[in-house]
Design goal:
Order of helices and strands: HHHHHHHH
Distance between the termini: 82 Å
Largest sheet: none
Strand content: under 5%
Number of helices: 8
Structural class: mainly alpha
Helix content: 55-70%
Radius of gyration: 25 Å
Length: 161
């Protein structure tokens, strides 16, 4: 029996992706200061800190399941690791899909600069000149109105006339 099987009670032989991932999470949790010994409270604390259920953490650490996609970021944050490492370990992406040290060119919608009214019309495929001008004009008017309201709101809070 190999040493892994002896300490985890797993049968010898190749381990599944979920088992490998569970072993990684256990190691990272211990390194992050979670007491993963029986009755150590580490699983409960890990569940609390990641927003996962205690049973989901237990199934993951025992190598029965992988986390849900939305849970990878919290796991990475709590375990002080790169989300890339977790995604690769879980078999979600390959190492080649996201090479180490490369920051993917993905930005959330909130981090992007606003589109011009013309670019917005392009993104929606508005090509008819009349419809396009109507939409662009409406967007420009909405921007002017919002800026006016923002100026009034700012003046009201600063006491400026």
């Amino acid at each position: 029996m190999d040493s892994t099987a002896a300490t985890t009670g797993e049968p010898p032989g190749p381990r599944s992706t979920a088992q490998e991932f569970g072993a990684l999470i256990r190691r990272l949790a211990i390194e992050a200061g979670y007491d993963m010994s029986p009755k150590g409270g580490g699983r409960i604390a890990l569940a609390r800190d990641t927003g996962m259920s205690e049973s989901a953490v237990g199934r993951m650490i025992n190598g029965h399941t992988l986390p849900m996609p939305a849970q990878f970021e919290n796991l990475a944050r709590v375990l002080h690791t790169d989300v890339r490492n977790l995604l690769v370990a879980a078999g979600v992406i390959s190492r080649e899909a996201w090479p180490e040290g490369v920051i993917p060119d993905v930005r959330s919608a909130t981090s992007q600069s606003p589109q011009s009214p013309e670019a917005f019309a392009d993104s929606w495929g508005i090509t008819d000149p009349v419809i396009r001008q109507t939409m662009v004009g409406a967007i420009e008017m909405a921007i002017r109105l919002q800026r006016g309201l923002d100026t009034e709101h700012s003046a009201a809070h600063t006491g400026a006339p």
